Amino acid sequence: MTDIESLRGRIRSGFRELRQAELLANVSRAATGLSSVGVAAADAVASMLRNDFPIFEASMAANLLGAHAVPINWHFQADEAGYILRDSRAKVLVVHADLLPQIRAGIPDGVETFVVPTPPEIQAAYGISEQQSIPPPSARQWSDWVGRQQPRELTGSPPPSSMIYTSGTTGNPKGVRRDPYTPESSVRFTEMVALAFGLKPGGEFRTVVTGPMYHSAPNAYGLWAARHGGFCVLQPRFDPEGLLQLIDRYRITHLHMVPTMFVRLLKLSDETRRRYDLSSLEFVVHAAAPCPPDIKRRMIEWWGPVINEYYGATETGAVVFHTSEEALRKPGTVGRPLKGGIVRIYDGEGRALGPNQIGEVYLRIDGFPDFTYNGLDAERREIERDGLVTVGDVGYVDEDGYLFLCDRSRDMVISGGVNVYPAEIEAALHAIPGIHDCAVFGIPDEEYGESLCACIQCEPGITLNPDDVRRFLSSKLAHYKVPKVIEFRSELPREDSGKIFKRKLRAPYWEKTGRQI
User: Fold this and answer.
1) If you write DSSP's letter for every residue of 206-251 in order, what string do you get?
2) I need a surface site. Which of 46, 166, 363, 393 has the fewest CB within 10 A?
C-alpha cells in the first residue's frame, strides 16, 4: 500500500524519483551553469526531451535567469529542429541520447549541447534500444555538468515562461514569446491556474502528466505542479489502462487530459474499468481539441462530476471554462469566460456579432502578459482586433454567454458557397458504433470548389462501408454535410497529444491542384 502522505513534493517516473529539494538544488546549479555559458535574460534554452526530470531542471533554470525555455517537438527531424534552434537563437540545447542522431545535422554552430541518457521507462514505452539510449563518448552529459556547478540563490518562483512554437500547419512554426511577468501578472497567472487547472500552491494534489511537455498546456501544467510541491507522476506515453493503474495506486486527485484520451479510455472493457478505484479524483480538466458531447457525457457518468474543460490557446492562456454540470446542461459548449476573460465574435468585415451568430472567435484575459511571435511582430498585429486576439477558431456565443466552437477557420470548408464545419460532422461520426476515430476535411471539387472527405479508423475487428456511414449521417445532418468521399484507414496520422495531422490527410488531394492547404 502506497503511503500517500509521503508522496508530497516528489516527481516519479518509472522506478526513479526526484524529490523537490533535489529538483531545486539541481535548478540552482543549472542556472549557474547556464549563466557561465552566456545565457542571460531574454535568451533561449532549448530542450528536445520526452517527459523526464531534466526538462523541469532546464526550464526552471532558464526561468531563474529570465530566459525562455523552448521545448522542441521530439518528432522533429534535423531541418525542423534546426529551424527552431535558429529562430529562437537558442544558446543551449538539452537532448535525450536517442534523439540526438535525428537532429544532429540541424544543430547550428555555437549551440552548447548537453545529452541526457534515455531512461528505462522511456526506452520501454517507445521501443528504444539500450545502445541508442547511451550518450556518445564525446558528449557532455547534462547531469554530470550540472553536478559540477555551484548552487545559485533561488529568489522567488517565477511562473513558467516557455516559448512554445505553434504547430505550423501553414508555413514555419511561430514562437509565442511572452512579455516578462510582473508581480501583478504573476498573481493573475496563479488565479488562472487555480481556476482552470484546479491546482493551488501548497502541494495538496497528486497528478499524472499524461501529455508531452513540448505542448503548451502539459508544459505549463507540469512545471506548475513540480514548482508547488505536489506529487507528480510522469507517464512516458499515454496508455489508458496504465493511467487507471496510476490513479488507483497513487490516489491521484488531479489530471490534465485531451479528448482523444477519453475516447481511448472508453474503449476499455467494462471488466477492465471496474478493476480500478478512481474515487480519489477531484478535478480533471481537458482542452486542446473539441470533445464530442456524447464522449463528455459518458466520462462524467463513469468518473463523476469531476470533469471540467477550458478553452484558450498558447497565445492567450485559459480564457473560458465550464464544469460537468454545465457540460450536461449545455452539451457541446467550451464554457463561459473566467474572471477577467473577454470573448467576442466578429464577422469577415470586422463587425461584432450577436448571440448565436457564427463568426471568428476573439478573446483575451485581463492581467495575462501580452505576447508577440518571435521575430514576427507584424503577424502578431494581424490577429488583433479591439485589444483581443484570434487563433483562427470559428464559433458563436449563445444567449447565456456560453461559447460554442464550430471549427478552425482554416478547417472550415466552403462548398458551393456554403460554410461547412467538419467538427460537427466528426462529432456525428463518433456516435457510430465501431468507429475509433475520424477526420473530416475539404478536398478540391470541380463543381463546388470544395467537397467533404472523411477518413475513418474503425475498431479492431469492425468493418463498415461508406453506404452505412452515409445512411447514418443522412439521418442526423443536412445532405450537404454528408462527405462525398469516405475512406477507411488502419491508422490516422497523429501527434502524441492525440491531435490528428489533417494536413497530411489533405495534402495528396491538393498537391495536384498546386493550391496551398
Assistant:
1) EEEE-S-TTSHHHHHHHHHHHHTT-EEEE-SS--HHHHHHHHHHHT
2) 166
* Neighbouring-strand partners of residue 335: 403
Phi, psi of 137 (to 5 degrees): -55, -30
Residues 6+ apart with CB under 8 A from 215: 164, 288, 497
Q: Which three cell numbers stand for residue 204?
A: 495538496
Angle at 86 between CA 85 and CA 92, to 5 degrees: 45
Residue 11 main-chain phi, psi, to 5 deg: -115, 130
Q: Say how many residues make up the chain.
A: 517
8 Å CB contact between 92 and 116:
no
Per-residue pLDDT tens over the stretch 454-509 = 999 999 999 999 999 999 998 888 788 899 999 999 999 876 556 788 878 988 88
Residue 446 predicted with pLDDT over 80: no
Closest CA relative to residue 305, chosen from 279, 330, 276, 274: 279
Report yes or no: 391 and 313 within 8 Å, Cβ to Cβ: yes
Which residues neighbour 511 within 8 Å (Cβ) at sequence distance 6 or greater?
Answer: none
